[in-house]
Amino acid sequence: MGSLFRSEPMCLAQLFLQAGTAYECLSALGERGLVQFRDLNQNVSSFQRKFVGEVKRCEELERILVYLAQEITKADIPLSEGEVSPLAPPLKQVLEMQEQLQKLEVELREVTKNKEKLRKNLLELIEYTHMLRVTRTFVKRNMEFEPTYEEFPSLENECLLDYSYMQRLGAKLGFVSGLIQQGKVEAFERMLWRVCKGYTIVTYAELDESLEDPETGEIIKWYVFLISFWGEQIGQKVKKICDCYHCHVYPYPSTAEERKEIQEGLSTRIQDLYTVLHRTEDYLRQVLCKAAESVSSRAVQVRKMKAIYHTLNMCSFDVTNKCLIAEVWCPEADLHELRRALEEGSRESGAAMPSFLNTISTKETPPTLIRTNRFTEGFQSIVDAYGVGSYREVNPALFTIITFPFLFAVMFGDFGHGFVMFLFALLLVLKEDHPRLTQSQEILRMFFNGRYILLLMGLFSVYTGLIYNDCFSKSVNLFGSGWNVSAMYSAGPASEERSGLALWNASTVRHSRVLQLDPSVPGVFRGPYPFGIDPIWNLATNRLTFLNSFKMKMSVILGITHMTFGVILGIFNHMHFRKKFNIYLVSIPELLFMLCIFGYLIFMIIYKWLAYSAATSREAPSILIDFINMFLFPANEASGLYPGQAYVQRVLLAITVLSVPILFLGKPLFLLWLHHGRGCFGVSRSGYTLVRRDSEEEVSLLGNQDIEEGSNQEARCREVTCEEFNFGEILMTQAIHSIEYCLGCVSNTASYLRLWALSLAHAQLSDVLWAMVMRVGLRVDTTLGVLLLFLVIAVFTVLTVFILLVMEGLSAFLHAIRLHWVEFQNKFYVGAGTKFVPFSFSLLLSSKFSDDNGAM
């Protein structure tokens, strides 16, 4: 857990890679994911780098593999997974793999093109066959091809020649036949009439079956048409109109013998095309099946190879151009593994001179690396969403594992709802290796990634639900109530001991709408409920008042404790970075300000709970009045919670007032004192700019070393050149921080009251849902009650899941995130770091190759 408390220590290393072994060394590093490379060629364009040609070659191979994957998917052939993560191909095999893929692409494109051409010809012949069959019934003519039409449309008002005159001019009757889509028939016929002035006769009929369009492959309803026309000019117009409407025009036979001969020829050609097409499809499927065996593994290899060359472009060459120099961030714990990876890469390449590394010192801030597992990954993501932690500062995720689900459960406390959430999360945890969950849709994947967060939220909600004694808005009597109702009833005259007590009699029970239990009566209150709230409060009319008081005080106690813990964690940061002056001048005044006011408020709440009993409860003073009087100093001070309360409160208030100027001026004056060389007391710097690199505080501390390091401090201080020091900026920054903290203590404490508000809202909404749904079904008589109860339970389940579990759960989740980000983490967490992103092939392979096809 040490690595989860702080980010791992990092070092900057130089890798010296021989030109012949660089590819193999980076392949070994990518498999292990140990280092993050720095770009040493930031001023060089990506098109002018050394290995841009190799990157383009990889992109070309990716394009070929994407095309192959698309064709394999189109043919409904499953992609073989093969080896999950094959190694990057050796340089000797890259050219061979490129040649094989290019040859396969050319062959596949030719076979696919021939197949499409054969399919198109087959569809056209089938259309031609249907057209001949339908048009045989359109027109009947004799062997001499004489027209049998006896009349044309009326042309009395047109300046055209009549039928007999056109016969004397030698005009011939022509035919155009073909197929047209169903939706274009009316517009097509109207256009022919307008353009050809009525000198056409259009006959059409609908085909019985839908045919596939040879151009688009869609299944469309077709109409067969036959157009009769006079003259070549009208024929040209008809053909142009057919082209405009994308009609499929086929030759029309002039005689019955020609029609029969064409049909016989079409039948033979269709059979031959079917045979050839089937053989072509079989050969194409064989080629695709063979390609499917290796396309996935080759895609992984190409992506690894491309990542290697991209990383090599970030390296620089030495003056001899025989050695590549790379700078990497590496965890100190992985330096030994890094050396082994370099040795392995050098051994695989067979180089005589092995590659090696050299660690260097730097003042740059290293990236932040926090190792996580399946359980801690979700909680670390919540923290990183606020900001990646600065290098080596305290990581809030370790404490968020407990505090986040607990604060959620305080707002969501219900035993039944929490148990349902726990079962759902437990199912996701038990099935976490199922491939369908890892590849699910976005919403389900979001729940899956947070399955351990849901598991703890449900488990803590069960705990707080038992504390609240709420199970679907109803109390559960597990241990028996601590209140005894019968002790309040007195049938006869009261004894001497009970004569002064307000007991119940028959008249009181009969005429009173509300009966009050008095805990001071002997035997009424027999002791507290063993665990949680007594179930009798579920029957009380003042139940809401009691729960409001309890939850409001509980929220204040939890909030102040949570914030105080955040301030204490800030002390660990100052100790780690050796800025002890921040402990004395910042953290301790902050703690005193917090504890002397709000910590004292917690003390009064707990003291009142412990010091006063049911018998003396009427004498207990109001905490709110006493807390206000702490700042007002009233003249006539009434008796307080305890003797000497007024003097204690004045001392606490004096400490609070004194801590404010220290918080405002202590740190700026100390840094000014350091800047003028009054001493070297403060921090010890050893290589890294740990917090806020360019701040004025760091400028003043650069010239000073910790007195704990020994002698010769003055000489060391004079050796370092102090940069410009701006006291006004430091003072303004500290003043803003102090004002924000002092006011934030009040506002943040009030913000934690959302724990009370959301808990109350959840309980009341659950109670309303029970009263409006379940109670209706339970009150129906026995004849229809059983049948209606199933429907009521179904409606109640759906509303509970969607309203109380999903909506209320999301609301409590967001409020818990806000309490951690704003109220807790801002007390100690800077979150101004950069995340460690290693050169790792596992990050490249996190998504399936098939998922990237659409994007490419």
From TrEMBL:
Essential component of the vacuolar proton pump (V-ATPase), a multimeric enzyme that catalyzes the translocation of protons across the membranes. Required for assembly and activity of the V-ATPase. Residues 94-128 form a coiled coil. GO terms for molecular function: ATPase binding; proton-transporting ATPase activity, rotational mechanism. GO terms for cellular component: acrosomal vesicle; focal adhesion; perinuclear region of cytoplasm; plasma membrane; vacuolar proton-transporting V-type ATPase, V0 domain. It is a multi-pass membrane protein. Belongs to the V-ATPase 116 kDa subunit family. It is found in: Membrane. One of its GO terms (biological process) is intracellular iron ion homeostasis. This is V-type proton ATPase subunit a. The gene is ATP6V0A2. It comes from the Eukaryota. Keywords: Coiled coil, Hydrogen ion transport, Ion transport, Membrane, Transmembrane, Transmembrane helix, Transport. The chain crosses the membrane at residues 406-430, 451-468, 554-572, 584-607, 651-674, 784-807.
